Amino acid sequence: MSESSNLSTQDILALMLQRDRFSQWLGLEIDEYAAGYCKLHYRITDAMLNGLNTVHGGILFSAADSALAFACNSHGILSVALDVSISFTKAAKSGDLLTVEAREVHLGRKIGVYDIRTTNEQGELVALFKGTAYRTSKPVS
Fold this sequence. Notes:
Blueprint: H1 9-19, H2 21-26, E1 29-34, E2 37-43, H3 57-73, E3 77-88, E4 97-107, E5 111-119, E6 125-139
Antiparallel strand pairs: 1-2, 2-4, 3-6, 4-5, 5-6
């Protein structure tokens, strides 16, 4: 059986945020955090645009991947992405404020499955990300 961390969900979040320089670089701001759940937001900057003047898909993927990491590690078990996929549904432009919401849809002993949705300020779906996480037997520390 996996041994969980003695850290609270808020302690886990603080630890992960402190170490996650990439999420800091993206400008991700956490709005809500609980076991199996993370809601965050960020603003698209000119540096995040592709050659078509819309947000680069890698930015959307990275923000969703960070939300997955925060949500799947919230239980105190060191968890890593095992399989992920993303569908881009609407373009976003510089200045857009995007919200990313990660919800746990299954939590097993070794596998967790997550639905991560990115929406714009109008509530329109920009990207749909599905993540499967592998739960190691190590605590988050």
